[in-house]
Write a structure and sequence with these properties.
394 residues; alpha/beta; 7-stranded parallel β-sheet; 3-stranded mixed β-sheet; globular; binds sulfoquinovose-uridine-C1,5'-diphosphate
């Protein structure tokens, strides 16, 4: 299949290119390489050194024996997107090319507006380019479980049956996102659903949980094929940060009481699920929603899991509670469905301990690199707009 990856240079985009090439798909992608700039802007660095565009492309071509078409360009530039689609004529488009950080979008007015303008307009450009150039193509749009927020009822996959004043309907489940970034994904979901309805195009909206992990089997031991791994307060996600903290003996940073629950999934599961969505496209005019995560855990549970596994390999780890820089519920009900992907054959990784252990071992070699940037581990971007470093509260 000809697959176009928007955001091919990122934490998910790059492994997806490696994964799909290894399965014999024809892959093209575009990226403005902004993730590298954002991480530098907030003082971070990838814990694992990664290659530049040329080195990455060469490595995939050697491993998979066919040309990977990796362009540098801006997805908010419609002429660029349309031109690429006219050349490559994708059968599927996977949209991973957005600003993905909640804290980054909360820095100030400029970061909030930039995030929403970039994310909403580049998704609209992909929707229009599909309509005008390849109307049969399947859009797989990366959304987030965070679109739903944390309601005190079960979370279905996108839609639910509702009865109100004696009448019934099947409606989009309410979205109550918790950051300007998560709100941008809500806007994308509405726009994507509307496009399928008026144009008869097809889309899968992936409500993905928090991804963790340093690699996938298809990367083998070629360091040029590996993906980035961030640990700063903006682009490092919880388990990835905890593992980097464990490596340098920094206390694991639990925000608040640590009972926040989220869906999590290893990087390999994210690739498996995107592959299943690609290979099982929806019908023309269909907009479907998949909740994509391996299981739901509390942040404290995960911190204790990382501490335990790190202990097994001789790394003593302390866990500390920091005052929560975010406005979020810290103790709440959380029970989302994730049936659609299981029905397509998703086999969740059962042993996340071994994924975390492999991560810790991968990161050990880069201890100095992480230690040299340890000041990015304590958050100071706050949802109330103040800029103040979190303090230890317990
Ligand atoms: N947290 C800590 N300590 C840390 C980092 C995070 O306790 O050092 C807590 C946060 O307060 C939050 C939870 O862990 O309650 C998750 O935070 P996160 O930074 O791992 O993830 P989040 O900001 O929710 O965003 C990440 C990705 C985003 C994706 C989202 C999926 O950055 O792109 O959309 O996960 S979800 O969380 O399901 O919305």
């Amino acid at each position: 299949m000809r697959v176009f990856i928007a955001g091919i240079d990122g934490y998910l985009g790059w492994p997806l290119a490696v994964y799909l090439r290894a399965r014999g798909h024809e892959v093209a992608g575009a990226d403005l390489l902004l993730r590298r700039e954002w991480v530098a802007e907030v003082g971070g660095i990838s814990a694992l050194p990664i290659g530049g565009r040329e080195e990455r492309t060469r490595a995939v071509n050697e491993a998979a024996g066919a040309e990977l078409d990796f362009r540098v360009g801006d997805l908010t530039d419609f002429a660029f997107v349309k031109g690429l689609f006219q050349e490559f004529r994708p059968e599927a488009v996977v949209h991973l090319g957005q600003m993905p950080s909640a804290p980054y979008s909360m820095i100030d007015q400029a970061h909030c507006v930039w995030t929403q303008r970039n994310n909403v307009s580049n998704n609209l450009n992909l929707l229009w380019a599909i309509k005008e150039v390849v109307p049969e193509a399947h859009l797989i749009k990366l959304g987030t479980m965070g679109e739903y927020g944390t309601p005190a009822v079960d979370i279905p996959e996108g839609f639910f049956e509702v009865e109100f004043r004696g009448r019934k309907d099947y409606l989009p489940f309410p979205r109550q996102a918790g950051s300007w970034y998560h709100q941008s994904k809500v806007h994308d979901s509405h726009n994507t659903r509307f496009a399928t309805e008026i144009w008869g195009t097809r889309a899968t909206d992936i409500m993905q949980g928090v991804v963790f992990g340093t690699g996938i089997a298809e990367m083998g031991d070629d360091p040029r094929l590996r993906t980035r791994l961030d640990f700063d307060q903006c682009f490092g996600t919880a388990i990835n940060r905890f593992c980097c903290q464990a490596i340098i003996g920094h206390p694991l940073t639990l925000f608040g009481i640590g009972k926040q629950r989220r869906g999590f999934l290893p990087l390999a599961d994210a690739m498996q699920c995107l592959g299943l969505a690609l290979e099982n496209p929806p019908a023309a005019g269909e907009y479907r929603v998949f909740n994509q995560f391996e299981n739901a855990y509390s942040i404290a549970e995960l911190a204790y899991l990382v501490k335990d596994i790190a202990g097994d390999i001789g790394l003593p780890v302390d866990i500390k509670r920091y005052d929560n820089p975010r406005t979020e519920m810290e103790d709440h009900y959380y029970n989302p469905d994730r049936q659609h992907l299981l029905d397509l054959g998703y086999q969740p990784t059962r042993d996340i301990r071994s994924v975390i252990k492999a991560m810790l071992l991968d990161l050990l070699d880069n201890k100095e690199r992480i230690a040299a940037h340890a000041d990015v581990l304590i958050p100071d971007i706050r949802w109330d707009g103040d800029r103040r470093r979190s303090e230890v509260i317990g």
